[in-house]
Known about the structure:
The protein is an alpha/beta fold. The protein has six helices and five strands, in the order H-E-H-E-H-E-H-E-H-E-H. Strands 2-1-3-4-5 form a five-stranded parallel beta sheet, sandwiched between helices. It starts with a helix and ends with a helix.
Amino acid sequence: MTKDSHIANSHSPTNSNLQKSQSVTAQQLSSFTKRILIVDDDPDIIFTFKKGLEAENEKNNKTFFKVYTHNNPLSALSEFKPDFYDLILIDINMPKMDGIELSNKILELDANVKICLITAGEANIEALRELYPTRSIGCFINKPVSIEYLVRRVNAELD
């Protein structure tokens, strides 16, 4: 046995343990990671919501928010990944495609994803629920909204 092979063999168990440790850490992290998609045509809203949710990662040890964003509902739909997101926040009033239509199209692709609709206007929530009784549009958030309230609603939807 050469000196080099002895060194390589002596490090193999350590490498194996390190890989196992990293794998466990990655698995633990993935179970705590919640993927959130935000779709809103207002870049300021997207920036504020994303930064507010990601700031919770510094405070909160039980959940890690990974936030994805789109400011165009058509690009959000074309790039949508079924069985990937835990929650989607969608603005109701957007050009090209409104949030209700986008929600319906997304739910056709992924019936299990949770959706929160966001609006700056008045939405008749009960009428929307009557129109779409089988859809998993679970929450409605009115703008303006504080980051604290947004985080509480997101956590409530993810629990």
